[in-house]
């Protein structure tokens, strides 16, 4: 692979030498500079290759140089393509600019026609305005004359009214001065009354404070008395409650005894009735005695 690359390189080198021999026929400064640059590049590549062969026994420097030249060519082609695209874009923009220029020219023509039309309209308006101005001036002069007459009459009326107002103003000033004097007197009287009432208020407040202090003392005494009476009342309530409890106990006991007596009476009556029904007792004697007693009573009658 290295031999084939070297043969390719030698072939390219021979071709470049042929091209250099052809280009040497052209003695322009640019061609000479390019030839000199290419010779220098070939010389550098050969020197690097010789060093690489002697030291490393490889063609790496040659491959690197060839690859670098390929990259440069690719970059150059990219630049050329970009320039071509730029030229096409410039042509398109120039065409678009021409179209825009054409449109603007047509629009300018249309605007010039519109301006001419508007100038004619302005001229007509000026003529009409002049006519109307003359008419308005004549009307204004008449109105001014009438206004002057009316204003002179109103001015006279206003002067009369001003005189009346001045008289009223003088009267108002006099009334104001008299009212001010009266109010000052009233203010002085009110100040005196205010001082009097302030002093009286202070005296009354001092008196009322003394009364309040006395009432507070009485209130404290009354509260102490009320507390004492409350204590006595509670004691009496306790005594009353105890008395009521005792009376309730006695009443319950009396009711119990009464119930027992009633029960005993009922039992005795039941027992007597039983004896009478069975004839075991002495109720007959009692009956005979009762009958004899009744007869004796009848005889006495």
Automatic annotation (TrEMBL):
InterPro entries: IQ_motif_EF-hand-BS (IPR000048), IQCG (IPR042618). It comes from the Eukaryota. Gene3D superfamilies: 1.20.5.190. Keywords: Cell projection, Cilium, Coiled coil, Cytoplasm, Cytoskeleton, Flagellum. GO terms for cellular component: cytoplasm; sperm flagellum. Residues 155-267 form a coiled coil. The keyword Cell membrane does not apply. Its main location: cytoplasm. Residues 275-301 are annotated as: Disordered. It is found in: Cytoplasm, Cytoskeleton, Flagellum axoneme. Residues 286-301 have a biased composition (Basic residues). GO terms for biological process: sperm axoneme assembly. Belongs to the DRC9 family. This is Dynein regulatory complex protein 9. It comes from Carassius auratus (Goldfish). The gene is drc9.
């Amino acid at each position: 692979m290295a031999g084939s690359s070297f043969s390719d390189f030698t072939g390219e080198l021979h071709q470049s030498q042929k091209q250099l021999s052809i280009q040497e026929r052209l003695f322009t400064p640019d061609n000479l500079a390019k030839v000199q640059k290419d010779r220098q590049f070939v010389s550098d590549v050969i020197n690097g290759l010789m060093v690489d062969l002697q030291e490393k026994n490889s063609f790496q420097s040659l491959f690197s140089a060839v690859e670098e030249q390929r990259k440069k060519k690719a970059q150059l082609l990219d630049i050329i393509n970009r320039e071509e695209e730029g030229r096409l874009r410039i042509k398109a923009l120039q065409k678009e600019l021409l179209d825009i220029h054409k449109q603007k020219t047509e629009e300018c023509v249309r605007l010039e026609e519109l301006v001419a039309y508007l100038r004619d309209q302005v001229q007509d308006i000026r003529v009409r305005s002049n006519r109307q101005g003359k008419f308005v001036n004549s009307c204004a002069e008449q109105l001014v004359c009438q206004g002057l007459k009316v204003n002179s009459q109103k001015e006279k009326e206003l002067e009369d009214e001003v005189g009346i107002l001045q008289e009223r103003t003088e009267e108002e000033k006099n009334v104001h001065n008299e009212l001010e004097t009266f109010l000052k007197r009233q203010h002085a009287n009110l100040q005196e009354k205010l001082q009097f009432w302030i002093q009286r208020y202070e005296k009354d407040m001092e008196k009322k404070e003394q009364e309040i202090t006395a009432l507070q003392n009485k209130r404290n005494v009354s509260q102490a008395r009320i507390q004492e009476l409350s204590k006595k009342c509670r004691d009496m309530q306790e005594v009353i409650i105890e008395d009521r409890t005792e009376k309730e106990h006695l009443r319950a006991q009396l009711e119990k005894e009464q119930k027992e007596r009633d029960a005993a009476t009922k039992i005795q009556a039941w027992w007597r009735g039983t004896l009478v029904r069975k004839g075991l007792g002495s109720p007959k004697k009692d009956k005979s005695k009762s009958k004899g007693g009744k007869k004796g009573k009848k005889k006495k009658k």
